[in-house]
Amino acid sequence: MKKIKMGMVGVLVSGLLTACGPNEVKPIEEMKEKSAAVENETIEFSPQAKEWIAEMLAEFNRPPEESFDELGNEDVGFVYDTKADNLYRSMYKYIHAENESYDEDFANLRLLAAGIRHDQLNRIAHIEDPGKEMTNLEHLKDWKSVPESTEKAFEYMKQLLNDIDVAINKDGKGTTFGVSHLMDGDNVNKLESFISHGE
Question: Strand runs (DSSP E) across 86-168, as ranges?
Fold first, then answer.
């Protein structure tokens, strides 16, 4: 079952990276106060994984303007893409698909990150050498504008990181957005509908 599930995540990520149409998005609901224990108390995260989640949350909560100097440009979409790509690449060092009861949240993080990367590729697809232009900022002025789907996906990543952090670093007590399976969130279906259909 685990192999099938991971295979489906791979298929969905591949689909997001190759799809062409822009996503229409709706505004997200206000966050709510939720204090609840994580249902599956047998889940164990390594200290390194807990620290990584806290660090990712802090990084995603930083205003994009704080990254302009270090990235050498003032393109918010490039900041979002860089952060999402960093999370995607570093996740495998700390989070392993050994426990299906929590892998859904991390699969959703991977899919959201892949969606942001797909949007960034679409922004530069009209350039002669788009692969090179992802890091070569010489043609930044030629990039298309940041799509709303990127903004929404990045916001959902922040919300999901927050909820996972509450679940594993704060004993399930704290302010959540209801988008995590770990916290049995009320808005998980909305997040996954956005991932699947851009709604």
Answer: none
